Amino acid sequence: MLVLFETPAGYALFKMKDDIFKYFETPDAAAKTLKLKAFQKFENTTDAMSAVTALVEGKVSKGLKKFLADELSELDLKDTLAVGDSKLAASIAKKLEINVVSDSTTLELMRGIRSQITTLISGLPEADMNAMVLGLSHSLSRYKLKFSPDKAIHLLDDLDKELNTYAMRVKEWYGWHFPEMTKIIVDNLAYAKVVKTMGFRSNAANVDLSTVLPEELEKEVKDAAEISMGTEISDEDIDNIHHLADQIISITEYRVQLYDYLKNRMAAIAPNLTCLVGELVGARLIAHAGSLLNLSKQPASTIQILGAEKALFRALKSKHDTPKYGLIYHASLVGQAGPKLKGKVARSVATKCALSIRVDALGEHDGPTVGIEMRAKLEARLRQLEGKAKGVVGSASKGKKEGNKKFEFKQTKSYNAASDVAVADDASSAAATPAKKRKAAVEEDAEEEEKPKKSKKNDDSEEGEKKKKKKKAKTDDDEGAEAEEKPKKKKKKSKTEDGDS
User: Fold this and answer.
1) How far does the chain reach from its first CA to its final CA, in angstroms?
2) Which terminus of the chain has fewer Cβ atoms in its 10 Å neighbourhood, N or C?
3) pTM recorded for the entire structure
4) What stretch of H or E contains 293?
5) Which residues have a Cβ under 8 Å from the Cβ of 201 and sit 6 or more positions away?
6) Is residue 296 a contact partner of residue 345, using CB atoms and an 8 Å limit?
């Protein structure tokens, strides 16, 4: 039986003489039981660290695969190889296609070898072995402590706040003495360096500011210092202002170092995500999710609004539109898009980020393998959306221009008698006949339409005449009746007169 044993110094391959696991009480008994077949030494700590990390993850490293392939002959391939780690045993059996055993008996065998390792491997003192074990354990502990950018990004935010506060206090304090310089120099670091170098504004003419400011700004500061309206300050004031300026300079330098550290670490742990959204946005996303592995489990829709949870729940509660982006809004690709396209671009960036994060967290390759390609696709998508938007805006503006176009008077052409052409009589008569026919047809239609109107008018007139006749006859009858009543009245009068007489 062959036994594979890993040490801080290298890989050891033993050949067992007998299948007995209990003869490890003394070094002599262990030497009789096991015989060292081969040993491969690690070149440096980096090789040992890479080998140990591969063993911890249950993977067969390139060095171990080459060592076993070189040392195991065709006769040895028929033997059984004892391996302490079950995951490593399965990987070796799969890649090298040999018989591998890993059980409780193998663990007892490994414990026995570990107790007598200095005797079994000659030329390896115990003191050197202990030093190797200590150094490798420290390196492995540092490796297991995964980098989390939340501390660095939070510290970066705190430094920015402190810098803004200190710079505001320096400008406020020194502004009493030289208020014009606040508008001339906008950068906080440059302002602090000028205050530190110049001191009182009366020294501006004799101080060389070329190391701090460009030539144009230097001349402008010196000209403004000669006609400044600021008040005089004491030496104690300028000393305190110098202390504040020193704080600004030192904090700014530390911030630059911290940003470089964050940039390098992000390029190491999440190169594809960094390529898409940048170091700061990528670090904020990882810090918000807790870790890179937690972020890789999130869908693209969650990554898109990560950081806007309050706005999301407020919109759901009030039944308004949900937010379109969160922390991803600060990505350069989203910032380049127009106001109406930011939602679409944020959705596209979140989709590509979800894929890149999974490659960074679970992939085996180092470097931005898919990040560069995805960024190129996103930039092409952004150009396509901007082109469509420009086309729509251009067509709308064109329509507006045509609609609001100023009226221009166009003079009509005068009649040209020379362009008249004489036509034959037959042709003119032939051309005239269809026109006459059409005219006659139109007149007939008009007459037919007028006939019912005339008949209706005649009927109305006849009825009116009848009514008039009736009225006339009635009036005649009334007049005859009145004429008959008059002689009767006369007769009555005569009778009455006769009676009286």
Assistant:
1) 186
2) C
3) 0.53
4) helix 292-296
5) 177, 178, 181, 225, 228, 230
6) no
